Description:
This protein has 466 residues and is of the alpha+beta class. The protein has helices spanning 14-26, 95-111, 124-134, 150-164, 210-220, 239-249, 319-334, 342-346, 353-357, 379-395, 444-465; strands at residues 3-10, 32-35, 78-81, 119-120, 139-140, 144-147, 169-171, 178-181, 187-190, 195-203, 224-225, 229-238, 254-257, 264-271, 275-281, 284-290, 301-310, 338-341, 369-370, 405-413, 417-418, 431-433. It has an 8-stranded mixed β-sheet. It starts with a strand and ends with a helix.
Amino acid sequence: MSNRADVVIIGCGEAGVFASYELTRRCPNLKVIVLEQGADIYSRTCPIVQGKVDHCIQCKTCGTMCGFGGAGAFSDGKFNFTTQFGGWLTDYMDSKEVMRLIHYVDSVNVHFGATEKVYSTFTPEAIALEREALKYDLHLLQAQCKHLGTENNLRILANIYEYLKERVEFHFHTAVEKIEVLPDGGYRLCTGKEDFDCTYLIAAPGRSGAEWFASQCKGLGIPLINNQVDIGVRVELPAKVFQHITDVVYESKLVYRTKQYGDQVRTFCMNPYGHVVAENVEGINTVNGHSYSDPSLQSENTNFALLVSNRFTEPFNEPYRYGKHIASLSNMLAGGVLVQRFGDLVGGRRTNSHRMTKSFVHPTLKAAVPGDLSLALPKRQLDDIIEMIYALDKLAPGTANYDTLLYGAEVKFYSSRIQLSHELETPMPGFFAIGDGAGTTRGLAQAGASGIKVAQVIAHRLESQN
């Protein structure tokens, strides 16, 4: 006997959370079931975060990637008000609508405790910074940004969870194994323990469910479109080096086109006074960064990613697997995340424990193992990253210092995108796909916006039927 609902949502990361919120707000009598392979917001744990181990032990379900809040729950909570980056929603609707949805998501966050402080690239100081960057062919992307903070981000999500748990039927530790189409319309979600039937299906699988979702779409005959994969490193250096930038815009999205190959390299996820952290993506250890709002939790370093964008053409059609393979090489060499001093990399020397003790920059990720990134990353991407570091050194002198730390690999997996309407509906009626795992977004703001959009579409259809 299956459990019947009006709407079933697969996954409760940022997209699934906001779809749930908007559905219950607009249609309070609707039966909404959320299926999530991870735990609720209070039960999500990671042995590394708790200090019990110094390396990933391959938990069956990754506590940092899965559960209420998804991969964004343990991020430092950067919320960007822009369509220039963070997703591809403008492929489905005009930019004004996307920005309206983003601002609406922000208003919900504020209601549940988010800050109202906004950093902007439109201030006189930011405009002067943009002009200075252009001297060195560095392009500062335009955006407003809120920094929620890792600890505040969790608190906001806990507040939203308290609101939703009285209105939504959550099934945690429940992984969907298969999506089936019902003969009389609607969909069935098979979990191996219990089946769930619904009229409307919203797939918000998150980054950890991206490959699974792509395989389900293939089985259902839904066309897939390859997305890019970004490969690079996480840079860690003294916070003072970038202070004149982070004090103005907090997170600077700087884009550079290399002279050697013509490839695009960009800064991503900048964390002033932050910490470098490891994360597990389907058994592969990659690196990321966090930053706290509480000064007592901050470090003396700033970290950010340098990513080289790679978009593939036919016949190659598995960029996700390619990115995982690159990351697995550093795992093979270091047993996890690898770290190297910039001077050692340029000089063709492997960083070892002895050389690391001489470094003036102290790594915030203690579990990282000194090694040689040139044995893990492809030469082209590594050349691009080195060229970008020298370009950044002109804008922020000290970036190319010998002791600047590079962690690898940082890989941003972009899920295969599927054919969607402007309402984010698949070719199968009543079946919607949202968030990072569906390849439509990349970040908190647009992920939340995609959830709101689909919930409003479903609510409008239900209103039209009554």
